[in-house]
């Protein structure tokens, strides 16, 4: 009799233990130990399973994000999906595998992943007072390879400035510069721009000097998504030499320009000195806007006209005597007139010399500006 009762008692004991185990909340929800990485636009599954497995189709099941308002990502009540309780950003994008609920699988399917979906998700069964968490990391689908370009020359440090840029990143990446031996280089702060699609564009600059290999690397990486892109560049030795020679050439042109200016100033001084000396030898006093020399010339011309009239009327010795004086005055007037012409000619030659020097100075200035522009380019 005791032997006949033993199997039913065993079954009852097992059921009792299972019921006690269930009532004490010994069921646990389990999730992945590592973050789930999803690509923008993809569909992703956030794992969550009840251990040991049991049918949870008739229970209350919640998927939430505590930092959102409302916090519900998915709500299951009495075998139905309560869409009205969901956060608006998740409507039409979350679902459960209803056929797997009887096995305790309440994993969440998230469609068309967005940048804002990244974060911590909570899987929760209130009736069993058990929960599990899943971390979702969202990564960009396609990122551009970094491009390295010569930004400018750095004459203060005696090197060149390289610029690196890469686009299409999510989350925000880091930028590193390395030399040919793999050593990190000290660079300026990274510039970051977030576009309307929530993707990041990063750029960085570094000043490099002439080295053994002149090879440099720009590396852009995102640790949480394990994405890395890098580009290499080699700067020829001739480029550093051109930079050095351009500095010395610029200094030489500056000295030449200063010498030309000094020569022009000296020539101008001598021209002024010459004019001052000439004016001191032949002073001209103006009275009522007419110089003494002009007045004397007018008097001579008037007197000459009178004498010519007398010559037509007079005869003999009087005609010979009176004709000598106009000849003397005419000769003196011509000499004075020739001196004025010579002085005017010298003045014009001096002005032409000054103009020629100014033109040479302008050509030197244009040459310096043109060379500096080519050096920058």
Automatic annotation (TrEMBL):
Segments for region (Disordered): 336-377
Alphabetized SUPFAM superfamilies for the sequence: Immunoglobulin
Domain Ig-like: 7-139, 146-234
UniProt keyword terms in alphabetical order: Disulfide bond, Glycoprotein, Immunoglobulin domain, Membrane, Signal, Transmembrane, Transmembrane helix
Keyword Magnesium annotated: no
PROSITE patterns per record: IG_LIKE
Localization terms from the record: Membrane
GO BP annotation list: regulation of cytokine production; regulation of leukocyte cell-cell adhesion; regulation of T cell activation; T cell activation; T cell receptor signaling pathway
A GO molecular-function descriptor: signaling receptor binding
This protein's GO CC annotations: external side of plasma membrane
InterPro entries in UniProt: BTN3A2-like_Ig-C, Ig-like_dom, Ig-like_dom_sf, Ig-like_fold, Ig_C1-set, Ig_sub, Ig_V-set, IgSF_BTN/MOG
Basic and acidic residues: compositionally biased ranges: 336-369
Position of the signal peptide: 1-25
Annotated transmembrane regions: 251-272
Family the UniProt entry places it in: Belongs to the SKINT family.
Name of protein: Butyrophilin subfamily 3 member A2-like
């Amino acid at each position: 009799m005791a032997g006949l009762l033993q199997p039913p008692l065993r079954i009852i004991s097992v059921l009792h233990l299972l019921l006690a185990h269930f009532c004490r909340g010994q069921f646990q929800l389990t999730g992945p130990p590592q973050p789930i990485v999803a690509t923008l636009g993809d569909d992703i599954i956030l794992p969550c399973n009840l251990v040991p497995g049991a049918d949870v189709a008739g229970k209350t099941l919640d998927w939430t994000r505590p930092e959102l308002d409302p916090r519900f990502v998915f709500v299951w009540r009495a075998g139905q999906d309560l869409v009205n309780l969901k956060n608006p950003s998740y409507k039409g994008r979350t679902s459960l595998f209803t056929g797997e609920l009887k096995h305790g699988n309440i994993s969440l399917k998230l469609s068309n992943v967005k940048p804002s979906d990244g974060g911590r998700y909570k899987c929760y069964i209130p009736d069993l007072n058990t929960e599990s968490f899943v971390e979702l990391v969202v990564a960009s689908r396609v990122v551009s390879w970094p491009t390295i370009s010569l930004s400018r020359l750095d004459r203060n440090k005696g090197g060149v400035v390289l610029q690196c840029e890469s686009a299409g990143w999510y989350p925000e990446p880091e930028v590193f510069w390395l030399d040919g031996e793999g050593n990190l280089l000290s660079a300026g702060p990274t510039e970051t721009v977030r576009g309307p699609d929530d993707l990041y564009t990063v750029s960085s600059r570094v000043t490099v000097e002439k080295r053994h290999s002149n090879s440099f690397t720009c590396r852009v990486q995102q640790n949480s998504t394990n994405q890395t892109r890098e580009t290499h560049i080699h700067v020829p030795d001739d480029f550093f030499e051109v930079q050095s020679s351009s500095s010395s050439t610029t200094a030489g042109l500056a000295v030449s320009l200063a010498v030309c200016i000094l020569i022009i100033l000296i020539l101008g001084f001598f021209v002024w000195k010459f004019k001052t000396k000439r004016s001191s030898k032949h002073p001209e006093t103006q009275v009522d806007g007419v110089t003494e020399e002009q007045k004397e010339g007018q008097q001579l011309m008037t007197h000459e006209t009178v004498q010519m009239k007398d010559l037509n009327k007079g005869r003999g010795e009087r005609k010979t005597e009176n004709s000598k004086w106009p000849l003397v005055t005419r000769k003196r007037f011509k000499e004075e007139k020739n001196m004025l012409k010579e002085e005017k000619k010298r003045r014009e030659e001096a002005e032409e010399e000054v103009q020629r020097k100014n033109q040479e100075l302008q050509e030197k200035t244009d040459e310096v500006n043109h060379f500096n522009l080519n050096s920058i380019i």
